[in-house]
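Late entry, S-adenosylmethionine complex.
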Amino acid sequence: MDLSIDLYQRYLQHFANTPGWFYLQSAAIWDTLLSYQEASNNIGNILEIGVFQGKSAGMLALHRQGEETCVFVDPAPLHEVRQRIEQAVPGAKCEYMQEMSQFLPRHSFVRDAARDFRWIHIDGEHSAQAVSNDLALAEMLLSDRGILVLDDSTSAATDRSPPPASSSCQPRRTPPARTHGARRRAATWKARRG
Ligand SMILES: C[S@@+](CC[C@H](N)C(=O)[O-])C[C@H]1O[C@@H](n2cnc3c(N)ncnc32)[C@H](O)[C@@H]1O
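Prediction complete; structure with ligand written out below:
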């Protein structure tokens, strides 16, 4: 099995200096796992909840293939992220949704593309309630051989107490230590072949 490092090199070239919380060690692990999925014909859409400036989304866009769609979700505007990704990966099929993840179940793709995602990264609001919602969503969307990546799953904000009003994950100045790990019709993304 050929696990080339070409995409990793392209990632470094385009996204290494993008601000965010995605360390190069994580990028290397993602690149290996995503490449393995591709080499083993594991096809599916890709979802990221919590995009910030696109540092980890860039790696996902680089690995998108064929009819797959990348879905990037963040309540903050994603115009700059779109520009950055389109410059680095021209023609990549990506959907940029300015939305809070707890409202994603209102969107028809959750029903129409159920079990059709090979990679889901949960890195949005880190309150217990929000993470619980995101996990429930991931359970609906992730395919049998899909990979779920959870960010900051052991951070203090993920305890069982009710989240304070200010607990939504806002852009932080200093990256914290991390513990880690289609086609479109209306709002439908089908990533499978045939
Ligand atoms: C830690 S940052 C994401 C870091 C990013 N993955 C990277 O590679 O740098 C968390 C992001 O989650 C977003 N966010 C906060 N609440 C959210 C929610 N309810 N749903 C989706 N995203 C949310 C914030 O706007 C912020 O951009």
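The beta strands are 45-49, 70-74, 94-98, 117-122, 142-150, 183-185, 188-190. Will revisit in the morning.
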